[in-house]
Amino acid sequence: MKNYNYTPENITSLGQDEVFVFGSNLQGIHAGGAARTAMRLFGAKKGQGVGMQGQSYAIPTMQGGVETIKPYVDDFIDLAREWDQTTFYVTRIGCGIAGFTDEEIAPLFDEALDLYNVRLPESFVKIILDRRKSRVAENNL
Questions:
Q1: Is the pLDDT of residue 26 over 80?
Q2: Domain count, the chain
């Protein structure tokens, strides 16, 4: 089984080619949680709720259900594929102030798990791997 590198629980500094990926709101208010950390430490800009900002990347999570988050996660995954010399540390986006569970958000990052330059929270990795095992088991019935 592959060894996975996880996003650290508490990130306070980044290397030159590293990016902090956090859950945001479309207004870019960044008032709490990882969004506040992104603004204080990693260059997130007040008023920008989506995309690259300094050494951070915002994925909006406060605008509706999980289905409204997926397009933003897909855009992030496309960027991570292009920026393959950059390491992206995805936080538990949507699982704090936005109120989603890891089980709701983790599957959105299924494709990201296979990218060598994306680190996911350990809880997301376990959920994605469990879902993949379940699909394989179902296909083998």
A1: yes
A2: 1
Q: Would you say 31 and 100 are in contact if contact means Cβ atoms under 8 Å apart?
A: no
Is 23 a domain residue?
yes
Q: Phi and psi (nearest 5°) for 16?
A: -60, -45
Give me the CATH number covering residue 36. Answer: 3.40.220.10
Amino acid at 27: Q
Name the residue range of residue 100's domain.
18-139
Question: What is the maximum alpha-carbon separation in the chain?
Answer: 51
- pLDDT tens digits for range 40-87: 999 999 999 999 999 999 999 999 999 999 999 999 999 999 999 999
State the chain's mean pLDDT as an integer: 95
Query: Which percentage of the chain shows pLDDT scores above 70?
Result: 99
Q: What share of the chain is helix, strand, coil (3-state, %, to 5)?
A: 40, 15, 45
Over the range 62-79, which residues count as b (16 or more CB within 10 Å of their CB) and which as e?
Answer: beeebeebeebbeebbeb
